[in-house]
Specification:
By secondary structure, the protein is mainly alpha-helical. Helices cover about 70% and strands about 0% of the residues.
Length: about 270
């Protein structure tokens, strides 16, 4: 196989997490070696459908996902499981960005395959930690919010780049430091070490979203800051939450004016 889009579809369709991870790492290695490339003339994708995933976890509305304290191994396992589910979805999101949007620059595809490879590694680390805590991926309920946004933004690359990496994934930059502090209070250094790796590497993933969102805006003659705010209003409604991790978001390509606007928008919705 030399067609990157076909490789992306194989990764998307894989339902077994270990197989999805294996295919993802193999595709990244093949892209780096030059064995895979995006075919400009490849056919357009079919309408978006659910990616491959195991029968468990059971998907429930976000408000029905239970919140447990971190004072017990069960509570810490539930937190690790929630982050693992985000990373599993992030693998699919990165591959869908590769598969769905054709005719993009080679650097675009390299960025998102690299992100998929990172997310697969994150999922593996979290799965190992879950096992250490006596659990496995699928033992707790989870929600499908990340993939629901992929479906909503399937029609246009600008909306996808704005709203998945720069909103939903960027939320991880905001909340992970607080998770780390809570885990430090209960002495869970094993989970902290993994979250610190994820936090550091997710900055680059959000930065990729920033880079390609602005590229799309320049291509289409759009002003990025106002376009981003318009997309937030159109797609997020009253669901934008702060506070925002300004240092991490600045490192990920946000500017001060954007962050001021985000803060004002979040405050107006509380």
């Amino acid at each position: 196989m030399t067609d990157l889009h076909a490789a992306a579809k194989r990764c998307l369709d894989a339902s077994d997490p270990e197989e999805k991870i294996r295919l993802t790492h193999a595709a990244w290695d093949a892209l780096q070696s030059g064995a895979l490339r995006a075919e400009p003339a490849s056919p357009a994708p079919v309408p978006i459908g659910a990616p491959g995933r195991p029968e468990r976890p059971q998907l429930v509305p976000q408000r029905q996902v239970p919140h447990r304290g971190l004072g017990s191994p069960e509570g810490r396992a539930a937190l690790v499981h929630a982050v693992a589910h985000i990373e599993f979805n992030a693998i699919n999101l990165a591959w869908d960005a590769v598969y769905r949007f054709r005719g993009m620059p080679d650097a675009y595809y390299r960025d998102w395959v690299s992100c998929a490879n990172d997310e697969a590694r994150h999922f593996s680390m979290l799965s190992t930690r879950l096992a250490e805590l006596g659990h496995f991926y699928g033992d707790f309920g989870a929600h499908n919010g990340l993939w629901e946004m992929a479906e909503k933004t399937a029609h246009h690359d600008t909306a996808r780049m704005a709203l998945v990496p720069r909103v939903l994934e960027a939320r991880g930059l905001d909340v992970t430091p607080g998770m780390i502090e809570r885990l430090r209070a209960v002495g869970d250094e094993g989970t902290i070490a993994i979250l610190e790796v994820i936090l550091r590497e997710e900055v680059a993933h959000v930065a990729a979203g920033t880079r390609w969102f602005r590229w799309c805006c320049e291509r289409d003659g759009l002003e990025p800051r106002e376009t981003f705010l318009d997309l937030l209003r159109d797609y997020m409604g009253r669901n934008l939450r702060g506070p925002f991790n300004r240092p991490a978001r600045l490192e990920a390509g946000f500017d001060e004016d954007e962050l001021d606007s985000l803060t004002a928008l979040a405050l107006a919705e509380t």
